[in-house]
Amino acid sequence: MRVIPTIDDMTALLGELCERFPTICRKRLIGVSRRGEPLELVSIGDGQEHALVFGGPHANEPAGFLTVLRLAERLCADAAERQGFTWHFIACVDPDGARLNEGWYAGPYTVSHYHRHFYRPSMRHQPEWTFPARGFDRPLPETLALMGVIDELRPAFMFSLHHADFGGAYFQLTRDVPGLAAELGAIAAARGVPLDLGPIDTVGYEVAGPGVTLLPHAEHVYFVETGGDARTRRTHGASSWHYADRYGTFTLIAEVPLWTTPGCDDPSGSGFSFGHLAKTAAVRLREEIEPLARLRAGIRARCAADTPFHAAVDDTLTVAQLLIDTLEQAVGWEDAARTVSVSEAGGVNDTVRRLPLRATAMFVRLLAAEAAAGNRLPALESVRERLRRLCAEAEAEVVRPADPLGTIAAIQTRAALATARHLREQA
């Protein structure tokens, strides 16, 4: 069975690769994380153009570590695949956050086990979302390291190795390249993964093909706003693709899920309206989030342990509340009467499932850290029971692939090589 390598494993394995291929593979230090973890760049080949690939853009998305190893190994072994590019790899851009997820790396890859060890930082603590942008100029050390590499290389191609919890496979590009969207869809189909036609985080994006959308430009950065004046209320900045856009970099994101959602690839009508979907989703999300928010408010002043789970829980609850507000407003939008597709309904329902799971999972870890510090709060058992219920409900509604890690790595590796080939042919 494949397992996700730890941060220490990745350092050792990439070091071994450089030792096996000393004439074409080299590494160097590019920075240090907030907690002192070294950030290294491994470079392969000597092509004129540069391709930059980095894993762990979000702390709970480590399956791309396997992609880094698989793709780097293949490029070292096959000169034809390296043609035209020097390839550069950062194993993980958020090693501090990744270490707080290592409890689920060895499996089993169930919804329950994943969420018992889940951590995703608040947005202001995510290297992928703290690039400078209007109203935000507080990049993290990890972001600064990645910015430095982008400024130095001015990559023609950049691949940020995200992956999803639920849904189907979907791809995001910074511009349309003839033939690429169709090939990416075929890559997912060849591995038996349905294309997700309605993920909520691509709503409003231009469609390049089934399951493939175009990323917005830097001037369209979406900010989460939590109050305060215009100078202080920005909670996060731009992302890596926005920053690299100044160099004309082509960015690919290939989201492949750990668990698939039935119907995510179904474009047929669901039989109910967008207004009905928004209303029922808002009600469901409010029912799950408000009790957590009340518990959090009730124990806030009694917390003593200094852990990153405080900011992470608060941020997730804030995002959930913003989504509830948006859904409630959407009931009155002009298109509220239109019939939504099965896939679109699934995208909303996946998000309504995901946010309470994340908030509850990290709330359990917050309370467990308090208990470990001798501050046992009465909410711990009730929040644990809530997490068990949410995980059981999710397990009953999604499909667990036989080899989710191998599938993610295979699709992302093939997507990287296909994209590089298309860019070579386009040049």
Task: Please count the beta strands (DSSP E, at least 2 residues each).
Answer: 13
Under CATH, the homologous superfamily of the largest domain reads Zn peptidases
What is the CATH class name of the largest domain? Alpha Beta
Large-scale geometry: globular
Q: Give the helix level as a range of percent.
A: 40-55%
How would you describe what is shown here?
The protein is globular. The protein has helices spanning 7-20, 64-77, 79-82, 95-99, 111-116, 141-153, 180-190, 240-244, 274-299, 309-330, 342-372, 380-397, 404-426; strands at 25-32, 38-44, 49-55, 85-90, 157-161, 164-167, 170-173, 206-209, 212-214, 250-255, 257-260, 269-273, 339-341. Helices cover 45% and strands 15% of the residues. It has two domains: 7-261 and 402-426, Aminopeptidase (3-Layer(aba) Sandwich); 271-397, no CATH class. The longest helix has 31 residues, at 342-372. The strands form three sheets. The chain has a nine-stranded mixed β-sheet, with helices on both faces. Strands 6-11 form a two-stranded parallel ribbon. The chain has a two-stranded antiparallel ribbon with strand order 12-13. With 427 residues, the protein is α/β, with parallel strands linked by helices. The two termini are 40 Å apart. A hairpin with a 5-residue loop joins strand 1 (25-32) and strand 2. Helix 7 packs antiparallel against helix 13 (404-426), helix 10 (309-330) runs antiparallel to helix 11 and helix 11 packs antiparallel against helix 12 (380-397). The chain has 13 helices and 13 strands.
